[in-house]
Amino acid sequence: MEQVAFRQMKDGTREEYVFLERLEDEFNQGLVDRLLRALRHLDHSLSGYRVSRLEHSLQSAARAEADGADEDMIVGALLHDLGDELAPYNHSQLAASIIRPYVRGEVTWVVHHHGLFQTFYYAHHFGEDPNERDRYQDHPWYQSCVDFCERYDQAAFDPDYPTPPLEHFEPMLRRVFSRTPFDPAVIGEEHPREP
Q: What's this model's pTM, rounded to 2 decimal places?
């Protein structure tokens, strides 16, 4: 079989869906390579900063690594702005969706909310509330997102910071994305109850 016969999913046979699942599994083996290409593409993305979007991503991950963060958080820092080009107004949510099946819920939550939390540093220049993040102040991962933004994201625009190349982080990406997607032992509770 080279392709399915059905024109509507409801008409598909078990054989066709087994065939498609095999193709999807084969395709998904290249996920990390596609992520690496997307990261490299950030080197030619939004300009105006003192570093490229790729350098910012690498520096964010390097800062997380230097701070003793675990691989989930380092990978989250590396990929946190991956959605900038395709989803400029909700890039955080796009990046969080990419990592969600493979990292603990806290990292997904932090990446999902980092865009809002980052406005703390500049919203006042536009007459907006820099403390909008405080609507989440009772959330168990609020401080984790504050720390992520302060230590890894907002500080990662320094052209003089010693930043390793993308190849340094590739083994981490491969380890994290080789996990079984949505493994409860990895992702844990995605939406903890607020105290």
A: 0.93
